[in-house]
Write a structure and sequence with these properties.
The protein is mostly helical. The protein is 85% helix and 0% strand. The chain contains nine helices and no strands.
Length: 217
């Protein structure tokens, strides 16, 4: 979740720079209006994503639905590579990116609960407090690194804060932060989720514990 959130946090940190320097005005819409539309679509998409958690969990399970959402977010970021200054496709890309984030921000608590239960069954130690604190800490850490990563890339590209027009090289680095970093983080997250075995192991462990308790009676 730290890696996943880092990718989205960097993307969020680059919103203004992406639309201001890479996209620019679209027709009669200025950058500020476009960013406002993007913010509205982002908020609605995240809420919609959270509302669908029971549905996807029921038909696919937590792990598979989390992987699916990562692939949807991956597709959304790819859209930003090719859509250019097309407002409709920019909104579609935004939905595809932030809908999964809303879903995963909610499902992560269910995944964390599985980790807590697994730890208790494996070691007898219920580490709910420390794991919840760690989750909160890593989320804050991801959103603390986002500006540093984004501005670091822009600095490498030669960003000039006093100029209204950036070089093509700088635009590439803005695109790299806005799209490239999230794509890399999503791919890594998918790989890590493939190693998440608790969804299969927990039912077996619960059954074994139940059998032992019944045998001890």
């Amino acid at each position: 979740m730290f890696i996943y959130l880092l990718g989205f946090a960097v993307k969020q940190a680059g919103v203004f720079y992406y639309y201001n320097y890479y996209i620019g005005d679209i027709g009669s819409l200025g950058v500020e209006e476009i960013v406002s539309i993007q913010a509205l679509v982002t908020s609605l998409s995240m809420v919609a994503g959270q509302l669908t958690i029971p549905f996807f969990c029921k038909i696919m399970g937590k792990k598979k639905s989390a992987i699916l959402m990562n692939f949807i977010a991956l597709a959304g970021n790819v859209i930003f590579i090719f859509c250019g200054a097309n407002l409709i496709w920019l909104c579609v890309g935004t939905v595809f990116v932030w809908f999964p984030l809303g879903y995963l921000m909610g499902i992560r608590f269910a995944l964390l609960a599985d980790v807590v239960e697994y730890c208790e069954l494996k070691s007898g130690i219920r580490a709910a407090g420390i794991l919840s604190s760690l989750d909160s800490f890593l989320a804050k850490l991801a959103f603390g690194f986002n500006v540093t990563v984004m501005l670091g890339l822009m600095e490498i590209g030669g960003y000039d804060a006093n100029s209204d027009i950036q070089t093509e090289t700088e635009k590439i680095f803005i695109q790299l932060g806005f799209v490239g970093v999230p794509i890399v983080c999503i791919i890594v997250t998918i790989i890590l989720l493939l190693f998440f075995k608790f969804d299969k192991e927990l039912p077996k462990m619960k059954a074994e514990r139940k059998s032992k308790l019944e045998a001890a009676k």
